[in-house]
Design goal:
globular; Rossmann fold; single chain; alpha/beta; DNA polymerase, domain 1; binds S-adenosylmethionine
């Protein structure tokens, strides 16, 4: 089960009270949503959204087993958060949470190639039924220059050009369709001394591909803007990002909304996990939480 990060900090910022309405725009394992649902009680409501319908099906089963009735689960992208609220007759909410990116479900269980620790098909779509382009499509069809730009922009990969060249050479021999094959190409594509760093050489390439497949960086500002417009006065938006590219978007969004007088920033600097949380859940180490409240 995915361990919720910065849970105490999120609850401190939201301070949910009985009868309130919240949206968890990226519910996944539901750790944050359940804690909020407990506090808003049976007269309150949590809408839990996720773009991965397998996750929503599992969450429905789990909530039924546990008798949880005040979490309404929806398989939809947070780009459509306003439609989801409107369809439920909700015009304003007390808080919206975004916990961006992927989860341990994706790397450990989905079988969709989010990690290279297992050999899986290179897919990486959160929503295979609606999104067409897989990671394999990108790797095998994008021009070498576009691959290189993608690794540089979304992965901040310093050997982007070399890796893209190697991929272009390899795919002429054989279509690249598995995670291990791609990780192996990246490994051989970088200079030998760079292979022994803190993280596996393929980590940044996999991050870049996941962002590209799911158009993640374009989704974030769209989702945040839509969510801000749903907040009641005094309502709070909280966003957890896991890498600097996402965090920069969140920071710029909050600054711009603050300057326009729509939101007031609650976190001048991102809130980071305490050392005990990182010790207990290493995935939390890069988490950055920012929050703002509606004027
Ligand atoms: C880091 S996890 C959230 C973890 C969750 N807070 C918990 O406590 O278990 C991020 C989730 O966002 C989902 N996601 C990614 N892009 C999305 C989008 N555009 N709309 C809605 N959900 C999305 C992923 O499928 C994933 O389940």
């Amino acid at each position: 089960m995915h361990e919720p990060v910065l849970l105490k900090e999120v609850l401190d910022i939201f301070n949910p009270r009985p009868g309130q309405t919240y949206i968890d725009a990226t519910i996944n394992g539901g750790g944050h949503a359940r804690a909020i649902a407990e506090r808003v009680g049976k007269n309150g409501r949590v809408i839990g959204m996720d773009w991965d319908c397998d996750i929503i099906s599992e969450a429905r089963k789990r909530n039924a087993e546990r008798g949880i009735k005040n979490i309404d689960l929806v398989c939809e992208t947070y780009r459509k958060i306003q439609d989801v609220a409107r369809e439920r007759g909700i015009t304003d909410v007390d808080g919206v949470l975004f916990d961006l990116g992927f989860s341990s479900y994706h790397t450990d269980q989905s079988g969709r190639g989010f990690a290279f620790s297992k050999d899986e098909p290179l897919d990486m779509r959160y929503h295979p039924e609606r999104d067409r382009k897989t990671a394999a499509d990108i790797i095998n069809t994008y021009p070498e220059k576009e691959l290189s730009d993608m690794f540089m922009r979304y992965g901040e990969e310093r050997f982007a050009r070399r890796i893209a060249r190697r991929i272009a050479e390899e795919r002429r021999k054989k279509r690249i369709v598995s995670t291990k094959h791609l990780a192996d190409i990246v490994w051989h594509g970088i200079p030998p001394p760079a292979r022994n760093g803190r993280i596996h050489p393929a980590t940044r390439v996999f991050q870049a591909l996941r962002i590209a497949v799911n158009d993640e960086l374009a989704s974030v500002p769209l989702g945040l803007t839509a969510a801000a417009s749903l907040l009641a006065p005094g309502g709070t938006i909280a966003v957890i990002a896991f890498h600097s590219l996402e965090d920069r978007i969140v920071k710029d969004f909050m600054k711009q909304q603050h300057t326009s007088g729509i939101l007031r920033i609650l976190t001048p600097k991102p809130v980071r996990p305490q050392p005990e949380e990182i010790h207990h859940n290493p995935r939390a180490r890069s988490a950055m939480l920012r929050a703002a409240t509606k004027n």
